[in-house]
Design goal:
Length: 851
């Protein structure tokens, strides 16, 4: 009983239960056997060290001291492979360190009662002091700071759990459930940051008039509301503002001196102060169109103490302007080149001191600070600027933009609607590094199945949303210090988070000194190495399973680099399928004991031979696999021993050559050849539809027997050569019958007559059908053509002669007629010869007047 591998921890159980266990055990073994028969190489067996092993999914390590011949890394569903006390197979472990319930209903002061015994670490809540009503700045800051500190005790819990410690194995997905709910009466801090250039004068008046309404509206949303006010113009430098001394004092009518940013009123519950502060603030003037709003946003965010942001509150920063903004780099125009350092620089007066020392911040700097401080920026801008700020809002987490009317009369509605937009949506973010992947799933309020999303909309106060964060460690960081990480999952814009203390299970305890399983200079390692988790880690001078090989021994050989390689063409030892131990290859073991790697250089195996129908060498009846090649049993051949050696199937049924002499017998099947005449086909290559065949051979006998023409025209020859072979059967017209394997022959004889015949072999006897009559072209009368041509030539010649005669006659007549005419006009005597020229000549002087 004791040695039974599936022994239950207690023997007190009933016999029936024992039977059930036995049954379960036997089924496990059969599964195991099946598994061994499969060829899928399991990823565990090749892992040589404990940490490699447990970084592989579903693998476990066996650190049993005397565990020879079997891979120490094994699939963790194998039972009884390794004794339990020696098995290292860590599982994902999740523990809630802080898990307070979500605050449901109640208000801040009531929630203070939610101590739950964690109380020690939290201050008790105190009511928010209203002493910040003091009009002196110093006093206001002091009290605001005090209020901020006391607000940290806010026991309101909007995300649960709050802290989880997690041990995770690599590539194992872990789902962490968390819940979010927007608490009733959650504190809201609203800081109104206003552009106080001249064009905003009417807005300022309106805002001051609407101050009470604004706070009343917000109080309707939460009783725990605080309001603050700040303003900005621009850097007091050319070209942002005019630096002419007179203009510096009074840039415009009814204006005050310009300034960068001023905090008029820290966040306070006394909203009547807001109205008075806004109306007291004076407008100023500047030159260029864009304003220095970024400086102001940066200060309003980072000066937590001075502004009085509470730690646990929804923080809204309303930024109202009617102009564009300067950003990083614009400071160069005024000669300011030092970059913005993102620190708070406010004087006791609440004035930004580094306005002319530091450049404007960049958008990403602002985004970074906004994220760090969980602030929701609302850009309340006039319609002409809205498109610009809308784009800006996309680059700043948790921000939005809305259109402000020209005189800010819609500011209350704007703030209310933006607030409800912000508070009705929730988006989860985290700061996980690249080797940790967190994906969020939630059904939001739909109640259906969870879908991958980090964002839910349309939430109302008190709605609980469940999120599932799926955490996956994709790889172990190379630096062991990064194996423990703190990750924060937070809802955008809320200073509450779920902190995960993540420990990646990247190594085994037995690999660390001081644990069982770790033994430096172990005798098991011949005192030349450290025994870790059952395997030896040898020092530099030794190697081998038990550090039994010394590097000095092996390196004395002449071919020291070749000892584990077949030749110098390869760079890997033992063909990469084994380890080189003291100059001898020790080949890898496979998870399937049937599969053996062998050979001096592990170059052979008995499982990677060619397969037929997934059977190695077509099965043991046909051949065996030896050194990656099939060795066939007698009677079998082929690369996978899948061919019979006998060639009976290639013989034509009526006898004759193998494959009719027109092909080769391969693996019992004829491979027919192609000749210039045509391609052979058929089971034994007996067919050749495109070959000329016996047409030429038969043609003479057909000619002489049918038409008494051709080479054997003489009766004797014909009889001698043809009579005993075949007698053609005359037919009106030759038609091929496809079914009978008939072949058609067409020739032209010496008389240019076409004759057609067909032949077929019926039971080895030649049968020839020939056309009764040749098809001769009609005869032509050659002499007629010749005579005709001659006659035509003569006729044409005659015609040309006649024409010539006609033309000359006409010409002569004409000449004669002209001669006659000239003779009539002649001045000379008819008796005179017209051609005769007198020997004397007469000259006439044309200049001579001729009196
Ligand atoms: C809020 O707190 C006050 C006392 O501090 C209590 O009277 C009131 O009932 C609480 N509101 C809710 C909704 O619990
Ligand atoms: C605040 O709520 C009360 C009652 O619900 C309502 O009468 C009042 O008009 C609200 N005030 C504002 C500014 O919305
Ligand atoms: C609010 O501030 C005004 C002056 O700005 C002051 O008169 C009033 O007492 C303060 N209210 C409270 C409740 O502190
Ligand atoms: C967020 O709250 C924690 C206390 O829970 C506080 O230490 C931290 O300063 C707060 N962060 C901000 C930006 O206010
Ligand atoms: C959220 O999960 C809790 C259990 O953890 C369950 O009772 C509740 O119905 C879930 N809520 C939603 C909206 O799915
Ligand atoms: C994530 O944020 C938390 C809290 O700010 C911090 O402690 C932690 O180091 C951050 N983790 C990473 C990986 O940056
Ligand atoms: C391998 O060895 C042969 C003969 O020993 C030598 O000619 C050849 O250059 C070597 N090749 C390399 C790559 O070392
Ligand atoms: C491989 O060789 C071993 C030992 O010779 C033998 O037991 C095993 O059956 C062989 N495997 C195969 C697939 O032939
Ligand atoms: C081509 C051929 O076989 N020709 C023979 C036909 O018969 C005469 C007479 O027997 C032979 O002399 C030819 O050789």
């Amino acid at each position: 009983m004791l040695s039974h591998p599936c022994r239950l921890s207690t023997t007190k159980r009933m016999v029936a239960l024992l039977f059930a266990t036995l049954f379960a055990c036997s089924s496990i073994f059969s599964v195991e056997a099946q598994f061994a028969g499969k060829l899928i190489q399991d990823p565990c067996v090749n892992k040589a060290s404990c940490h490699d092993c447990i970084q592989t999914q579903n693998c476990a390590w066996c650190m049993e001291p005397d565990f020879i011949d079997l891979p120490r890394c094994f699939k963790n569903n194998l039972q009884n492979y390794c004794k339990e006390e020696y098995t290292w197979n860590p599982f994902t472990e999740q523990k809630f360190t802080i898990n307070r319930e979500l605050t449901r209903g109640g208000n801040a002061s009531a929630a203070a009662g939610y101590g739950y015994g964690y109380g020690g670490s939290y201050e008790a809540s105190s009511s928010y002091s209203s002493s910040s009503s003091s009009s002196s700045y110093a006093g206001a800051y002091g009290s605001a700071a005090a209020a901020g500190a006391s607000a940290s005790s806010g026991e309101i819990v909007q995300i649960s759990p709050q802290r989880v410690s997690l041990k995770l194995r690599i590539n194992q997905l872990h789902s962490l459930n968390m819940r979010y709910s927007q608490a009733i009466d959650y504190p809201v801090d609203l800081y109104y940051l206003m552009d106080l250039s001249k064009s905003m004068e009417d807005d300022k008046d309106k805002l001051s008039a609407l101050g009470d309404k604004l706070s009343e509206t917000m109080r309707n949303i939460t009783s725990n509301f605080r309001l603050g006010f700040g303003s900005f113009v621009d850097k007091v430098l050319m070209p942002y503002v005019s630096t002419i001394p007179k203009k510096l004092e009074r840039p415009c009518d009814g204006c005050e001196a310009p300034y960068g940013y001023r905090n008029h009123m820290p966040l306070s519950t006394n909203t009547s102060t807001f109205t008075s502060e806004v109306s007291r603030a004076a407008v100023s003037g500047n030159l260029d169109a864009p304003e220095g709003g970024f400086d102001a946003i940066m200060q309003a965010i980072v000066c937590r103490q001075q502004i009085g942001w509470r730690e646990k509150a929804r923080r809204l920063l309303v930024f109202s302007t009617d102009a564009g903004f300067h950003y990083a780099g614009d400071g160069k125009l005024g000669g300011v080149i030092a970059p913005n350092d993102g620190e708070c620089h406010l004087s006791g007066e609440g004035l930004y001191t580094h306005s002319v020392i530091q450049d404007y911040p960049s958008i990403s700097q602002i985004n970074h600070k906004v994220k760090q401080n969980s602030i929701n920026v609302i850009f309340a801008v006039t319609a002409n600027q809205h498109s610009v700020y809308e784009k800006l809002a996309q680059h700043i987490e948790g921000s939005s933009s809305a259109v402000l009317s020209e005189d800010s009369s819609n500011v209350v509605d704007l703030v209310r609607s933006e607030y409800s937009k912000i508070s009705s949506a929730i988006e989860m973010k985290d700061n996980a590094t690249s080797n940790i992947k967190i994906t969020y799933h939630s059904a939001c309020l739909n109640g259906g199945p969870e879908i991958p999303t980090a964002k839910c909309d349309g939430l109302k106060v008190g709605d609980v949303v469940n999120f599932t964060a799926q955490i996956l460690v994709t790889s172990c960081p190379t630096d062991p210090r990064e194996w423990n990480q703190v990750i924060q999952i937070y809802p955008v814009g809320i200073n509450e988070s779920l902190v995960i203390d993540l420990e990646m299970l990247c190594s085994c305890p037995c690999e660390r000194p001081g644990t069982t399983g770790y033994e430096a200079h172990s005798p098991k390692c011949n005192n030349h190495g450290t025994l870790m988790c059952g395997v030896c880690e040898c020092d530099d001078m030794h190697f081998g399973h038990n550090c039994e090989c010394s590097t000095s021994d092996v390196h004395t050989g002449s071919d020291k680099d070749l000892v584990c390689r077949a030749d110098n063409t390869t760079q890997v030892d033992c063909n990469n399928r084994g380890t080189c131990l003291c100059g001898v290859c020790e080949c890898e073991k496979r998870s399937n004991p049937e599969e053996i790697i062998s050979g001096k250089f592990c170059e052979c195996d008995n499982f990677s031979c060619e397969r037929r129908k997934n059977v190695l060498c077509s099965g043991p009846d046909h051949g065996t696999c030896e050194c990656s090649h099939c060795v066939c049993k007698p009677g079998w051949t082929g690369s996978a021993c899948d061919c019979r050696e006998s060639t009976d199937t290639c013989m034509p049924p009526n006898g004759g050559e193998l494959c009719s002499g027109n092909g080769e017998c391969e693996c019992g099947v004829c491979k027919c050849k192609s000749t210039p005449e045509g391609r052979y086909s058929g089971k034994v290559c007996e067919k050749c539809p495109t070959c000329a065949g016996r047409c030429l051979e038969l043609k003479h006998c057909v000619q002489c027997q049918m038409y008494k023409t051709g080479e054997f025209k003489d009766e004797d020859k014909c009889a001698a050569n043809c009579s005993n072979t075949f007698v053609p059967i005359g037919e009106e017209k030759i038609v091929i019958d496809e079914e009978k394997d008939e072949l058609l022959c067409i020739f032209f004889d010496e008389d240019d007559c076409k004759y057609t015949f067909k032949y077929s072999e019926v039971n080895g006897k030649l049968e020839v059908h020939a056309q009764q009559e040749r098809e001769c072209p009609p005869k032509v009368f050659m002499l007629g053509i010749v005579l005709g041509v001659i006659a035509a030539i003569v006729l044409v010649g005659l015609a040309i002669l006649l024409l010539w005669k006609l033309l000359t006659t006409i010409h002569d007549r004409r000449e004669f007629a002209r001669f006659e005419k000239e003779r009539m006009n002649a001045k000379w005597d008819t008796g005179e010869n017209p051609i005769y020229k007198q020997a004397t000549s007469t000259f006439k002087n044309p200049m001579y007047a001729g009196q």
